[in-house]
Amino acid sequence: MFGQIYVQVDTATAVERNAQRLYGVSEQTMMRISTQMELPDDAFIYSGFAQFDELLDFIVSIWKKPALSLTDYTLMERQREADRLITAASMKHSLDLALRRIIAEIVRRAAPEQRKQIAAELSHHKQMFLASWTSSSHHEEHNFSEVIDHFIQQCSPQVQQLFREAL
Q: Is pTM, for the whole model, over 0.70?
């Protein structure tokens, strides 16, 4: 059986308590985590345990809840996978739009006689890059600027220079 207890505490208190620990984490890490922390979907929040007995009663009440059936768990996992695919498709669409804007700006900055060649090169790189990105299972690990940088690094030095000028 698995349960979650979310004890709500403000960041300043958490940082203060962490500083008293023998092996605490850095304050920078604490601040970063506090901005990324998400409340569990099915959390019961209780932010005032006056006595330990209240906490113990709460834990016992959670413990008595029935566990998920295999069917419920399977349905939840299928929904999570469907949500991941929707997010990935949305990310790919956003990336495609950003790359189009970048390509348009780079082509605009190119010498008129080079625009057709540069547009073809960038279009080809974009198509290959998006196909590679879609098949990658690690695309959520990178931030947007890292992905754009990776795309530009695959281009010719001339295009890379135009990109730097466009910034």
A: no
